[in-house]
UniProtKB/TrEMBL annotation:
InterPro entries on file: Fosfomycin_Res_Enzymes, Glyas_Bleomycin-R_OHBP_Dase, Glyas_Fos-R_dOase_dom, VOC_core, YwkD-like_dom
Gene3D superfamilies for this protein: 2,3-Dihydroxybiphenyl 1,2-Dioxygenase, domain 1
Pfam families: Glyoxalase
Annotated source species: Salipiger profundus
Segments crossing the lipid bilayer: none
Superkingdom as given in the UniProt entry: Bacteria
The name this protein goes by in its record: Glyoxylase I family protein
Length: 127
């Protein structure tokens, strides 16, 4: 039935700040950017290298996330990287706070967490 992964949708509180974070800081490529006047909302389609997309939405006064990260629903979004140490250093050089690198006890792979401008937990997972 399922043939692959298509996208993840994220609602932000400050569109310009989140757009800059996902494009400039994380380096995701813009596929399309649409202003939806009837909703007073931006929709930004971003390409995830290797397939899939991230959809960034803005809405007037969206409610905040209840807790981090154990609220019901999406726990976090993980991005695959070749070198977690280098990716962590690049984020920190851009002013992003990144947790210490840990090792997944089940896979032996290294990973770390950081947050987007709205506090959405994001993970770097070493491929």
């Amino acid at each position: 039935m399922i043939e692959g992964f298509h996208h993840v949708a994220v609602i932000c509180s400050d569109y310009a700040r989140s757009r800059a974070f996902y494009t400039d800081t994380l380096g995701l490529e813009v596929i399309a950017e649409t202003w939806r006047a009837e909703r007073q909302s931006w929709k930004l389609d971003l390409a995830i290298p290797g397939g899939g997309q991230l959809e960034l939405f803005s809405f007037p006064e969206p409610p905040s996330r209840p807790t981090r990260p154990e609220a019901r629903g999406l726990r976090h979004l993980a991005f695959s990287v070749g070198d977690v140490t280098a990716a962590k250093a690049r984020l920190e050089a851009g002013g992003v706070a990144v947790e210490p690198i840990r090792t997944d006890a089940l896979t032996g792979k290294r990973f770390t967490f950081f947050a987007d401008p709205d506090g959405l937990p994001l993970e770097l997972y070493e491929a």
